[in-house]
């Protein structure tokens, strides 16, 4: 029997009729589990948690666990790779990234666009980039809508994104389910008097290439994007509660090179399956792999479509995409 099928059978044994007895027969995870938590049972399903396991996990195993109801809290981390199918270049891709396209902005070196000293010297390049990312210029793709479907099914514990393009919000995932770790254009703050402004207030200026100014003190109004050296948003602290609670971690389209975001991938319990869907093996999954890691390399859209199929959600995905496309053309 294929590994995935065995996993499914075990999962069904646990959560199907007589599940409690099956539970009692399974060894329980030691450490990190929550008393009385059903979902901690995924550890029991697969024997001793963490590095002690010997079976190789597959995408199908994880899909079967979700289908069987054994993974109810799906935590997701995403990076620039999920936005490239929407036409937004990866910040770090040589030749095609934002950093490579900055000549037109007249910046001394690429990172300067997100550095406060350069911003105060010349805020125009940053606002030129902001204008490119104006809501509506780019549209969510099938990966964003897969995450929206996770939310609609009540499975999305939280979505941690490094992206500042706002496509997670645009796909219809509520702000309460998001941690925009590097900030967003949804709000802004005066750099002088610290007054806060809603996102709508500065776009009118940005769209006509004018630097937005505070209506009270005339200081530059900076969208709440996290620049180098700035603290992460308060909401990032939610990771302290979210990661120990996760039943499965999906990591999509990120090179996991920026801290502290990158370290989060190691913050789930050892027994929790981690699924990396990316072009390459990266970060902690490459140098400190765990027995329940699943690595799905290659084209992101194809990989996500494969996962959707394994989950049995292809029809619902098509319906959702059709509804959203209809909205756009309507
Ligand atoms: Zn001000």
TrEMBL record:
Tell me the superkingdom of the source: Eukaryota
Per the Swiss-Prot or TrEMBL record, the active site comprises 182
**Which residues are Zn(2+)-binding?**
190, 193, 214, 217
Q: Cite the record's Gly residues compositional bias ranges.
A: 44-53
Q: What is the originating organism of this protein?
A: Rousettus aegyptiacus
Cited InterPro entries: DHS-like_NAD/FAD-binding_dom, NAD-dep_sirtuin_deacylases, Sirtuin, Sirtuin_cat_small_dom_sf, Sirtuin_class_I, Ssirtuin_cat_dom
Which reaction(s) does its UniProt entry say it catalyses?
Answer: N(6)-acetyl-L-lysyl-[protein] + NAD(+) + H2O = 2''-O-acetyl-ADP-D-ribose + nicotinamide + L-lysyl-[protein]
**Coiled coil stretches, renumbered:** none
Q: What is its EC number?
A: 2.3.1.286
Q: Which family does it belong to?
A: Belongs to the sirtuin family. Class I subfamily.
Q: Which PROSITE patterns match?
A: SIRTUIN
GO CC list: nucleus
What name does this protein carry? NAD-dependent protein deacetylase
Q: Name one Pfam family in it.
A: SIR2
Task: Kindly state what the record says about how the cofactor is bound.
Answer: Binds 1 zinc ion per subunit.
Question: Which intervals hold domain Deacetylase sirtuin-type?
Answer: 52-314
Question: Mind listing the UniProt keywords for this protein, alphabetically?
Answer: Metal-binding, NAD, Transferase, Zinc
What segment(s) does the record annotate as region Disordered? 23-53
Instruction: Name the cofactor(s).
Output: Zn(2+)
* TM region(s), chain numbering: none
Q: Name one GO molecular function term.
A: histone deacetylase activity, NAD-dependent
Q: Which PANTHER family match?
A: NAD-DEPENDENT PROTEIN DEACETYLASE SIRTUIN-3, MITOCHONDRIAL, NAD-DEPENDENT PROTEIN DEACYLASE SIRTUIN-5, MITOCHONDRIAL-RELATED
Binding, NAD(+): 80-84, 90-92, 162-165, 254-255, 278-280
* Biological function: NAD-dependent protein deacetylase.
């Amino acid at each position: 029997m294929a590994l995935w099928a065995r996993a499914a059978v075990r999962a069904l044994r646990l959560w199907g009729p007589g599940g409690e007895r099956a539970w009692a027969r399974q060894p329980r995870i030691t450490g990190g589990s929550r008393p009385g938590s059903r979902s901690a049972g995924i550890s029991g399903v697969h024997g001793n948690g963490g590095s002690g396991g010997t079976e190789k996990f597959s995408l199908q195993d994880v899909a079967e666990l979700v289908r069987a109801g054994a993974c109810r809290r799906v935590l997701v981390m995403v990076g620039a790779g999920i936005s490239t199918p929407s036409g937004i270049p990866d910040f770090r891709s040589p030749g095609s990234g934002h950093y490579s396209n900055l000549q037109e902005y007249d910046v001394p070196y690429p990172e300067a666009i997100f550095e406060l000293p350069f911003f105060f010297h010349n805020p125009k390049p940053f606002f030129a980039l902001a204008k490119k990312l104006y809501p509506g210029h780019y549209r969510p793709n099938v990966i964003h809508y897969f995450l929206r479907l996770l939310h609609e099914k009540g499975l999305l514990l939280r979505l941690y994104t490094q992206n500042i393009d706002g496509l997670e919000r645009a796909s219809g995932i509520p702000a309460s389910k998001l941690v925009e770790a590097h900030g967003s254009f949804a709000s802004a703050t005066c750099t002088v008097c610290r007054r806060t402004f809603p996102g709508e207030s500065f776009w009118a200026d940005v769209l006509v290439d004018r630097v937005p100014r505070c209506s009270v003190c005339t200081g530059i109004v900076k969208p709440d994007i996290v620049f180098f050296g700035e603290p992460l948003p308060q909401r990032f602290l939610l990771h302290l509660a979210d990661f120990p609670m996760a039943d499965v971690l999906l990591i999509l389209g990120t090179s996991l090179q920026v801290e502290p975001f990158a370290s989060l991938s190691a913050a789930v319990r050892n027994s929790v399956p981690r699924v990396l869907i990316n072009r390459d093996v990266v970060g902690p999954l490459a140098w400190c792999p765990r027995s329940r890691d699943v690595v799905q390399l290659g084209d992101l859209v194809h990989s996500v479509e494969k996962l959707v199929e394994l989950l049995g959600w292809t029809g619902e995905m098509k319906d959702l995409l059709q509804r959203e496309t209809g909205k756009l053309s309507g």
